[in-house]
Amino acid sequence: MSYDLWYWPSIQGRGEFVRLALEAAGVDYRDRARTDGVEALTEDMGSRGGIRPYAPPYVVDGDLAVAQTAHILAWLGERRGFAADDERGNLELIELQLTISDVVAEAHDTHHPLTVSEPYEDQKDAAPRKAEGFREQRMPKYFTYFEDALSAKDGPFVRGDRWSHVDTSLFQLVEGLRYAFPKRMATIEGDYPKLIACHDAVAELDAIAAYLASDRRIAFNEDGIFRHYPELDGA
Amino acid sequence: MSYDLWYWPSIQGRGEFVRLALEAAGVDYRDRARTDGVEALTEDMGSRGGIRPYAPPYVVDGDLAVAQTAHILAWLGERRGFAADDERGNLELIELQLTISDVVAEAHDTHHPLTVSEPYEDQKDAAPRKAEGFREQRMPKYFTYFEDALSAKDGPFVRGDRWSHVDTSLFQLVEGLRYAFPKRMATIEGDYPKLIACHDAVAELDAIAAYLASDRRIAFNEDGIFRHYPELDGA
């Protein structure tokens, strides 16, 4: 069974959290806007009525389209065996995945504090204060939370020795924040050894290593969620 | 069976979305911080280790604590009969509920565009531009999305003639935005008749009418998510 992933073709963005889980699980999927073009994405979005995706990413299986990153991952995880085996475990994974969505949204807002409809350059006066609070207060608070979650079992993953969609997302969170805030990450990473061990264990999964080395992995850039603006970083 | 809801006791905030669904369903619950005090909330939060709530609200059932508003509602809805009867219906409800979470977060950020750790007064210079984009672009975009979702069936609710947690949340979204942005809502409400009909149908549920008339319903105020600052409103 093959899924269609619809997401902006030139950025990692929120779609990357879905790509990573699909790749890690070896699930067959087509990254439709990368093969068919961005116009095909806006056309597909526009053709859907009723209860439809609010925004990309969304994943289509037959006539079912599921949107919202955390929701896509929970759905695919339970279907394709990269969630938990029990209800409580899945409730925990969803809660963690939603909290990753929250920190990702805050990372985005460091470069878009005032409006999503105008570029960074038009709001860069407000961005340093937003970024400072994110670096100094929010990053440690979220990292402590994930570090504690990773302490519930013996690691390296949240569920122990089996990866889940939360682990691939934590990998991407660390990657993205290293790209966007290298100075800050260099300062604080050492305080979260379980989080970094989880990141490293995901990177070492055969399927992820192959994916990262392929041209399917889009490079970070300043159109995505995690952007490197040196003026927004600091130790 | 009684649940414990833990949330800040002096605001509606995100906890209100949980309260409304519990009230509408007639589910027995204790609003713990309102009976035991806010210190009991911080103490309960602090006592939880491993995979724990990142922030209130969270709902406790025995030794299970579930956090993240949309997630709480999906979980309780499936358990207590105010979700959908089938997998696809529940996938749709969760997607809608998560999108409500997104617009609620954006509504919050209109008065806290730069940092969550400092008061409105310290960021009120940046707030008007954030609020303008929210009023003019985001509110119509989200409302159109919910109006379309409500067109999938004959109403008044998303699932047709049976309310779900998405409907109680849409009610609260409309209530909150009317409180925060009365001028803007007066201008645009008429363009979204299904959304307003859903709001009105929720208000007329016996259990909701009784709840709204009770002292369990906290009044909107300028400590919550939906705040009325006249300088942030506009037609």
TrEMBL record, chains A, B:
PROSITE patterns: GST_CTER (PS50405), GST_NTER (PS50404). Residues 86-232 form the GST C-terminal domain. CDD domains: GST_C_Sigma_like. Signal peptide: none annotated. Gene3D superfamilies: 1.20.1050.10, Glutaredoxin (3.40.30.10). It comes from the Bacteria. Residues 1-84 form the GST N-terminal domain. One of its GO terms (molecular function) is glutathione transferase activity. This is Glutathione S-transferase. It comes from Alteriqipengyuania halimionae.
